[in-house]
Amino acid sequence: MLSTATPHRAPTLSALAATIRLPQSDAGANQRASQATADTLKLLNDTLAPQRRVVHAGDVIYQAGERFGNLFILNSGFFKIVTLSPDGREQVVGLKFRGDWLGFDGIANNQYSCDAVAMDVGEVWIVRYDALLAACASKPALLTVLHEAMSREIARDRDSLMSVCTLPADARVADFLRYWAESLAKRGLRTDQITLRMTRAEIGNYLGMTLETVSRALSKLARDKLIHFVEKGRRDIHIPEVDALSEFIQGCLAPTTTPVLQ
Fold this sequence. Notes:
Blueprint: H1 13-19, H2 27-48, E1 51-55, E2 60-62, E3 70-76, E4 79-84, E5 90-96, E6 101-102, E7 115-118, E8 122-128, H3 129-138, H4 140-166, H5 169-185, E9 193-195, H6 200-207, H7 211-223, E10 228-229, E11 236-238, H8 242-253
Antiparallel strand pairs: 1-8, 2-7, 3-6, 3-8, 4-5, 4-7, 9-11, 10-11
Helix pairs in contact: 3-4, 5-7, 5-8, 6-7
């Protein structure tokens, strides 16, 4: 007897589009996010008096295999999180901005599983994990801050996976630029012109694309007037409207209309 069960089908692009949230810019929300970051940094500074370290592009604050003991909070600058594939290739797996925490990957196995590398001049605050846990016992607000930081990292990892698995190349690069601009906006920084701290090759590595594909996608976005290169060959990019990037991404996911044959 033949089964009448409906076969499982892969989700369509339109279904995937419904699962991808593309936030629109909101000046009020960005201002609140910027203030929340400032409040968190003040709480950490007042409660724990963290050690401060100035970093420069290329500096590594911890490496894979190193014994875990500290968490790091980025007060200024930009970081990339890098891991090694089994065949020895470097893979960029995360980006960090002001207010972000680094080092959560070391908690489970008592050693860091990635490298944290500075992409610009900045300042990192260093907090001993055992001191942080002790302070959380008497300062519930600090425990809330820690949990929120962990939750944001989980959410960002999920969003990154969704982008790589579901978006076509042009939309993936547009989503990367949108994320970078909105991350700056949430920290009270300008978004109409951004300076990418990564090479085209690093962007491709992060997005699972070749350097050539990244370059073609950027050229298309420029032709469509969604971005503008301030100087040819430089990393400074002008973004007239961040929301236009979100609309472009949504358009790439929208199903095409196929005429019905009579």
